[in-house]
């Protein structure tokens, strides 16, 4: 493959303009055409801040000179090791440090793992303009209104085949197919060469909305050479092709017809095509729909306004109407496909929902698969529903869900369409990135030109070559369900210890640098006072150790308030040694020393 070059006369070469409705694509007859000229010596940096070696929080930095343009800004779901955490965000320290360079943000599609982190960004810095597909912009606009942040940016709807400039970088939207309407690949035109970002994609040849993957445009733009392909690795472990979204319709209709009573169905809130099919089946079978979950209702409303789904007035009814209907006419569409603790389905499963109580004749359909890390939460919800007598239909083999991500054969297809010089697998756990890199080699990419990167790694493009060059701050920011602030790793460690090891609380009162009475020891989640003499002896030994530590050190400390804190730390350290020696445990230890007046 030849390097991308361009001279001053190329702008004058004859071009062919293809018009289809409002879309205009400018291509040329075999010659390079790019809205950005190749500049010798120009350096463009590609930096992932999220989405590498993980699923979720997809956030990319494209940097040239004093211009930074972001691609997506996503969140991730917490894992079981993050008790009390509601959402996980990428560490954006690098963006805060360089906020004056940020010229804009480009969205590939409207899923939360691509737009859910934008509001937290705007709380820390302005983003002059955000381009996105119409549905993603509609969803984001509501988020910004709720957060009172609309004045921090300008929202701009992008169209298929549209090319637009942000600073010194240009972008072309190329429609792809995914599990949400209005999903795009990006062609990124930089002074260092052309980059293709696949976005989340699959090749759906019978899409529900009739909007096909625009292979023609992508192939034409790639014809004169692509320096780098960044591509979705999520389903690389599966051979073949991902089934079409349309294949779900017949299975859902079959289950709807079999259901003896109410149907409660959940899917991803942003799964427009799935929701559209559910509503179409309800119209066909004469059922009425109650929507529970703010995000689900917002999606249906915005999608209908934008023409992504159509349904008659009166199909969606409120709770009062549902109560007056026979069960067999009722369909409840709800959030909670990932077992989220605050979602409507989870609250129904554990009798915490104020309006819906699970009944024995209910059929619950989970039209989604668990995102890695959420399997236990989903299983807990399924178990709770089954225990109440509901019929629960879920799982990959039921045919009620198909993925929105490409399997291995589709990934090969994209590689062969784009034919990149360099390849960067993305959006996947480490093993997936490695496997996808091997697929790239199978498709002709030089093994030396495949990069397996982690969040924060910097890839530099210059003069037709690419190399890893340093790192920027990266990691995760955990947000508590209280939404009061970020949760640091120390707090998570404390929560994990509380859950697995328990708490040992010590209270001692001192006066005139003397211990007034025997220390009080209380355990939470840690068994101490049993017939087991070992544990009984531990309490005796612990009290002696506390008294000894205080008496030996309290006289040596000055009469200052901070001396009590120093004494607490001494007691804490000595107790930890004793606990490890006698109990072989590592609970949290809380020491309270009160000074009596």
Question: Could you explain how this protein is built, in words?
Answer:
With 597 residues, the chain is α/β, with parallel strands linked by helices. It folds into three domains: 29-240 and 403-464 and 476-480, Metallo-beta-lactamase, Chain A (4-Layer Sandwich); 245-398, Rossmann fold; 501-595, Roll (Ubiquitin-like (UB roll)), CATH 3.10.20. It is 30% helix and 26% strand. The strands form six sheets. Strands 9-8-7-5-4-3-21-22 form an eight-stranded mixed beta sheet. A six-stranded mixed beta sheet has the order 10-11-12-13-14-20. Strands 16-17-15-18-19 form a five-stranded parallel beta sheet, with helices on both faces. Helix 12 (408-418) packs across helix 13 (430-442). The protein is globular and about 85 Å long.
Output the keywords.
Rossmann fold; Ubiquitin-like (UB roll); 3 domains; eight-stranded mixed beta sheet; six-stranded mixed beta sheet; 597 residues; 28 strands; 16 helices; 30% helix; globular; alpha/beta; Metallo-beta-lactamase, Chain A
